Amino acid sequence: MTRDSTILEDERPLWQWSATAIARATRAGEITATEVTEAALDRMEAVNPVLNAVVESLADEARARAAALDADDGARGPLHGVPVTIKINVDQTGHPTSNGVAAFADLVAPDDAPLVRHLMAAGAVVIGRTNTPEFSFRADTDNPLHGRTHNPWGRHLSAGGSSGGAGAAVMAGIGALAHGNDIGGSLRFPASANGAVTVKPGLGRVAAWNPSQPAERGLLAQSMSVQGMIARTASDLHPAMEALIAPDPRDPFHVPLPWRGAPLDGPIKVAVSRDDFGFGLHPAVATALDAAASALSDAGYAVEDVDPPLAFETGEVGYRALLGEVKALMGPDIATHGSETLNAIFDAYFELFPPFEGTDLLRAFAQRSHYARAWSLFLEDYPLVLTPFLLRPFFGAGRDAEGIDGAREALGHAHWSFAMNFTGLPAGNLPTHVADLLEGPQPIGVQIAGRRWREDLVVDAMQAIEARIAPVCTALWDRMGRTAPEPSPHPADRGSGT
Fold first, then answer.
1. Cα 92 from Cα 218, distance rounded (Å)
2. Which of 304, 343, 421, 495 has the most crowded Cβ, counting Cβ within 10 A?
3. Where is the Amidase domain (predicted)?
4. Where exactly are the structural domains of the chain?
5. Which residues are tagged catalytic?
């Protein structure tokens, strides 16, 4: 079988190939979708017992899908034969949308969510469904239904949340792409924890709806929650996100814009902020930020130290407003169906970010336009903003469940994350440094925010950084090959699983 000469120079196993390389080779007939799918399934079988990232294997469906793709002589999509995973809080026909909640374990989806349709239309092969915390509302991934997802870097680190299964899976080599979603950081937390790359799309960019949902989500949830992809390299986000942004009439507020916007004149200006909001910036995070800024400058970007407006206030008001809506609309379900651990975590969240209620909540909803306008005006001058993501290295597994101090470390300083959801702006995350800390090595991610509906600019900037700072996946795979932790116990053997 003839293969692309650039691939011949790289004898890595198929499960390590990028989505871009897989799609190029399968479309050209140099490898088959079946070969790629079997490699991904073999990798899943080898490492998932340790990680518990994929909680529902779709091996049989994936094999049938790959065989059908190989037999079809028609047009081949941009993700032809690429193995992907879907998070268990999104509908996929015939599979439960449990959202990590035992009471919803039998909530079987009657139809596919828009993003599942779009990935399939692009030629992707879904190999499994990934873990999430209860109600997808923690910065860590653990639940009584499926148990804990572990970070492939080691058990000194949380896998992040809520798309922790997705982040751990893609970095461990279980699929080249992983679906996730983000209402306050749920794409970017796992990317930062596991060393992955993602872009949280802006409001309206990706059509979203679950056919199984019994009622519409709250207004702020509709405005802050978005669907996206987690990858190992920024280059893979271009074809993945271009496929994902296709229209679907079931989302009446989807914005039907092309992936690529108009080119900008001259060097693109990047504002770099090291604002720590008085919490302190860890030296490892400062190193990662400096590395990213230096790489962008070397790539020809005009990098300046400038703080965007109202960053802390945007995040603070935004998260307090979101928790106000959650308390009013989801509070009864969380109290009834959530574990004691989850309810205790929410008590800590409510102490850290007192939820707005009543008229104050309505005022916060209205104030959202004020913050979004201030950011939009700033982004006219600086189309990209480079910031820390978290102000310190990632926390340990279960840290958010260790009272108010644990919740504060996990979530209490994440204003750079919350601000992007409240304003509806795109924001990417990628690792630019691996810190050798006392607890063990860990990737350190930075955030790049961008103009509204210009996710392409964010991904381009992350690509420019990657051309100068290598992705961390190879170092991770080398580490995984040298360590062999025991498989996770089955949730039934773990008591509550929290």
1. 22
2. 421
3. 35-458
4. 5-493
5. 87, 162, 186
